[in-house]
């Protein structure tokens, strides 16, 4: 979908849904809330060439408000299902009740595949310690990675909300394996410093930093304290999906080398950005002329601060995931 008329129809539809959502008295799960957010997601999922930064200011303001509303609704949804799952003797046996569980299976598989490609070859075995920032009341990424892909890794989950951590802890407490490998920290990540050097990989949830300034502040903090050469993985959004989640651009990632950017084309909403902590001191300016011979051919997809991008394919066997495209950056 690329014409101006098509973009106008898309934006008008999204704005119409936004006004309905913003008039709701609560965003806790209900028939009205579920219906409106389902309509919003289905409207934003189809691939679109729309570029958020090119839209008028008032549309960008609506988009910023909508992203925050989506974040609030997602928090309520996770809290609701975390509470529900905690009523079972073994909550992890009933994760399929969460409506987006299959999406987490797909996304976690993609993230594991991408991480496996870029994790330092000189390391013996998979990452030993991973941190997830913004884990929430249902830390599904950590649970899925720990259960299916990284079965010997310890996961340290950080969330600023003590209630969210308490709910998350209840989900894994009855599992003899994950209860030992899933650790929960109630902290503002900006208050965590030297501990960050201990992690081989840090995941940053999509809703950590609801706008560019907030997200950059967190990224700069991680760049200051993470170990040189360690991996930072972030979730972003592309096309119309940027009306659902914040966008991470490579120029927002000073102190890190962008290794790969993946944009899904199926019902998985989030894009994935994998980076490596720069072993050199952070500078205040990105060197846009570095490796000038690798000019980007697809600037509308990945900003020009990236190196040349080509397409690679991943075959995701888990949950019958179809072949999907990764925008991989040549090193």
From TrEMBL:
<dbReference type="InterPro" id="IPR004298">
    <property type="entry name" value="Nicotian_synth"/>
</dbReference>
<dbReference type="InterPro" id="IPR029063">
    <property type="entry name" value="SAM-dependent_MTases_sf"/>
</dbReference>
<dbReference type="Pfam" id="PF03059">
    <property type="entry name" value="NAS"/>
</dbReference>
<dbReference type="GO" id="GO:0030418">
    <property type="term" value="P:nicotianamine biosynthetic process"/>
</dbReference>
<comment type="similarity">
    <text>Belongs to the nicotianamine synthase (NAS)-like family.</text>
</comment>
<keyword id="KW-0808">Transferase</keyword>
<comment type="function">
    <text>Synthesizes nicotianamine, a polyamine which serves as a sensor for the physiological iron status within the plant, and/or might be involved in the transport of iron.</text>
</comment>
<dbReference type="GO" id="GO:0030410">
    <property type="term" value="F:nicotianamine synthase activity"/>
</dbReference>
<keyword id="KW-0949">S-adenosyl-L-methionine</keyword>
<protein>
    <recommendedName>
        <fullName>Nicotianamine synthase</fullName>
        <ecNumber>2.5.1.43</ecNumber>
    </recommendedName>
</protein>
